[in-house]
């Protein structure tokens, strides 16, 4: 059915349709901001605002902040959206009163593939992360983490490991 329709449509019409779909998808991806994102320049597709930055990018970001976008603005660096905080008041507000907004980690595909989406350190801040963190802290405290004796054991192990490495200088470990 679909192949029959494609055979009957001219090459020009088919290319125009594909180009229109590509343009619509690209427009949605490039120009739409995530919900609740502050205003800011989008820049050039794929490069973002990087071509406009010179040796002192903070000066240009400050200028944009003062003249057009305000104390909290966003900018696209390459294909990543970043939030720029330009005043000490905005930094205090975001990091103290809205800490959950800044507690996450970037969700990079390469990190997910390397870790199998497991572990705690590179997890994004979510309910799953909170539960995992609580479990890790509880497990560590059951095994002495946070007690005075643990510090002595860690120091002792570090000394032993350092001595072991000194013995292996020039040899594969």
Automatic annotation (TrEMBL):
Keyword Nuclease: no
GO molecular function annotation: heme binding; iron ion binding; oxidoreductase activity, acting on paired donors, with incorporation or reduction of molecular oxygen, reduced flavin or flavoprotein as one donor, and incorporation of one atom of oxygen; steroid hydroxylase activity
UniProt KW keywords: Iron, Membrane, Metal-binding, Transmembrane, Transmembrane helix
GO biological process, alphabetically ordered: organic acid metabolic process; xenobiotic metabolic process
GO cellular component: cytoplasm
Cofactor list: heme
InterPro entries tied to this protein: Cyt_P450 (IPR001128), Cyt_P450_E_grp-I (IPR002401), Cyt_P450_sf (IPR036396), Cytochrome_P450_fam2 (IPR050182)
TM ranges: 12-31
The UniProt record lists the keyword Transmembrane helix: yes
UniProt record similarity statement: Belongs to the cytochrome P450 family.
Protein name as catalogued: Uncharacterized protein
Classification lineage: Eukaryota, Metazoa, Chordata, Tunicata, Ascidiacea
